[in-house]
UniProtKB/TrEMBL annotation:
GO terms for cellular component: cytosol. It comes from Planococcus lenghuensis. Its cofactor is Mg(2+). This is Shikimate kinase. Its EC number is 2.7.1.71.
Length: 170
């Protein structure tokens, strides 16, 4: 089996679902944001502040280009799927699932989190506009979109696991 990528906007649940899915499917789990933080020895706000956003984007692209393992779950960063080369790599090396959450759920989850530099530097209106701008890139990247509204983390994880088994059986 190839890789399973989770994509979507900040706070849609990529990290939370990825961790649960890895337990359920007994597959290794990689959270791209955490891998980048570990490799750089800096937090994401520090990387943005000290080196700028383009440098962070280059680290995401390099992670995907150089990553070697198969049969694993990868939670991407919220901006990973915006880059066309990243989309191509993900679609060619795995199954790409878009966790499609409504903006009001997203905003409730992220607006007080200091670890997301884009949220820290923007107004609610700016984040909402970014959410709409990015939506079509997530759709383009994904093999499957999963609507998360009114669903618990457990329900979403079970639904994603079901989709993975269904596609494996085809
Ligand atoms: N369907 C859901 N029901 C309840 N809580 C949720 C749901 N989805 C996500 N959450 C919670 O919202 C918070 C943000 O989720 P998470 O960190 O997984 O987002 P993310 O997509 O990884 O964001 P980022 O792109 O910034 O890394 C977490 O506390 C998570 O447990
Ligand atoms: O949506 C984004 O651009 C980001 C999302 C997070 O996962 C991190 O990758 C970082 O905070 C940038
Ligand atoms: Mg995350």
């Amino acid at each position: 089996m190839k890789r399973i990528y989770l994509i979507g906007f900040m706070g849609c649940g990529k990290s939370a679902i990825g961790r649960r899915l890895s337990f359920m499917l007994k597959l290794p789990f990689y959270d791209m944001d955490k891998e980048i933080v570990r490799r750089e020895g800096k937090t994401i706000p520090e990387i943005f502040e000290e080196h700028g956003e383009p440098y962070f984007r280059s680290l995401e692209a390099r992670f995907l280009r150089e990553f070697k393992s198969d049969c694993c779950i990868i939670s991407t960063g919220g901006g990973t799927a915006i880059n066309a080369e990243n989309r191509k790599i993900m679609r060619e090396t795995g199954l790409v699932l878009f966790l499609d959450a409504p903006f009001r759920d997203i905003w409730r989850r992220i607006h007080r989190d200091p670890n997301r530099p884009i949220v820290r530097r923007s107004t609610k209106e700016e984040i909402e506009s970014l959410y709409h701008q990015r939506h079509s890139a997530y759709k383009r990247a994904a093999h499957i979109s999963v609507r998360t509204e009114h669903r618990s983390l457990r329900q979403i994880t079970e639904f994603v696991a079901f989709q993975v088994h269904r596609l494996k059986g085809e």
